[in-house]
Amino acid sequence: MADKDDAMDNTADSATDIATEELEVPRDTWPTIRRLWDAARSQHWRFYLVMVSIIFYTGFSLAAPAYSARVIDVLWDGISEAFARGGDFTVTWDNAGRDIIIYLGIWTAACGFYSLQSFTMAGFAEKLNLELRNRIAHKLNRLPLAFFDSHKPGEVVSRATNDLDKMSEVLQTGLLRLLTAVGAIAGSVIMMFRYSPLLASIFICFAVLSTVVTKLVAKRNLALAAERQKWVGHLTGAVEEAYSGRVIIRSFNREQASSADIHRISDKLAEASRRADFMTNAISPAIRMIIRIAQVIIAVVAGGMLVAGQLTVGVFQAFFQYIYHASEPLTQMSFTINTLQSALASVERVFDILDEAEVEPDPAPAAAAHVEQPTQGHVAFEHVRFGYSPDKPLMRDVSFEARPGQKIAIVGATGAGKTTLINLLMRFYEIDGGCITLDGVDTRAMDRGELRQNFGMVLQDAWLFDGTIADNIAYGCPGATREQIVEAARMAHVDFFVRTMPQGYDTHVANDAENISQGQRQLLTIARVILCDPKILILDEATSSVDTRTERAIVHAMETLMQGRTSFVIAHRLSTIVDADLILVMQAGTIIEQGTHQDLLAAGGSYAELYRSQFM
């Protein structure tokens, strides 16, 4: 009966797992399965081998109880005869030894095929995981910037890692368990009916009853588990908020109020956990009672049949083995199906990425308009139209011209479209109408890599890669010598700071390094652009994170660097762009004013008002 206890415990565990597992249902089950099957085309042979192994494993595992009935009957008859003669019973090769060896061989073969199917399915799942990971890796390199702007980084990483890991795990366990369960249940029920239709019918009645009870309790437990998870989320958010805002909390003497709020949420979580745990723990005695009643009834009926000579001792014990073989997978079936559905939903999220629209391919080499490293830097926007979504246009008719060597300043309120203008120039987004030209060549006719070689960009948010300071400065120019790196650092006024670091230019840094301030990171990114020596500069609030004295030094260095180069400067502090050759004033994606500093002040428009708000 020990095996039966295990089955009862598995039933209770299944109810718990159903409740705690996030039940995700795929949108299109069969199309997703067919697509997943196509993705595993090179691994089909592994799956076929798994199916063959399952068939043999199921056959041997079902044959073992039947053969055990023969072995036990032989032993029982031999012992009974020996007892009747008053002698001893000795196991020999002919009277039971051969049958015992065969019985051992059956279980050995079943174990071998089980190991084979598990190993092969693991290979199938992991190879499929690798195939989809490679597809996602290639896909991410071909997705437009708009995709990353509309999806959180954690969401994309989760789809490429957690969702695929979940799929692999479920294929190795859930799918294999489901396939073996179908064979085990069907075969065990057939064998039970073969031995005794009456006993088999009793088992089926109680099996259906236990399944219904499991479903009902699991449904209730699922709601309680969802409530518990809700309060876990509230508590996590409250604790994180209290920790992150501890300075503000103390500044306003809100420690007691914050603590009371956390305790209130904790009490709610404790109450929800109490109810969920009670329901989780209550299912085990309930299922145990149902199974025990079934065992008692079957044992009583089978005992009467045994006494009446309708059953042998071997068949009696074999029948209980088949009960175990059928009840364990039966009670786990609903949980297995739920995990498979959840895995398919995860696969659908992966396919959603693979179905995203890719960037338009670059023109073929023969058709591409090749531009050697431009010596002019003549940029023109001609009636450009653009919108992040087709139904919400941002730019309707933007036109301006930047002549070689000019300094173009772009100003406007937050969200006016300043950075969007630069993104269009770099072809991070494709325009909806009009054209953008570089030295008279439409940028859409150029290879993206060839186009971006002409630009050097310093963003407002400085980013350092994991590596040394020298590696970060030389990021855009990997072949630069140490002398060139140091010279670029000097021009960016960062050389002195670098030499104060423990290993100088070989100091290891990362974007989240606490030993480098935001302003110092900005200086390193400026040095990175200086080293590249581009023909066109883009400075997106490049001096926003440095102090006034450093800002003046950087501006001076930039003025030297910008000599003979076309420069686009996005600025909020108008003092840095009063010497610009052309100032573009943007509002709601449209250029509402353009001209020099003096011309715009004389016009008395939006720029003049903005300038007076800063200096008057």
TrEMBL record:
Predominant location category: membrane
Transmembrane intervals: 45-67, 100-125, 175-193, 199-218, 296-324
One of the GO biological process terms: oligopeptide export from mitochondrion
Membrane topology: Multi-pass membrane protein
SMART domains: AAA
Listed CDD domains: ABC_6TM_Tm288_like (cd18547), ABCC_Glucan_exporter_like (cd03254)
The entry's keywords: ATP-binding, Membrane, Nucleotide-binding, Transmembrane, Transmembrane helix, Transport
Compartments, record wording: Cell membrane
Residue ranges of every copy of the ABC transmembrane type-1 domain listed in the record: 49-342
PANTHER family: ABC TRANSPORTER B FAMILY MEMBER 28, ATP-DEPENDENT PERMEASE MDL1, MITOCHONDRIAL
Protein known as: Fatty acid ABC transporter ATP-binding/permease protein
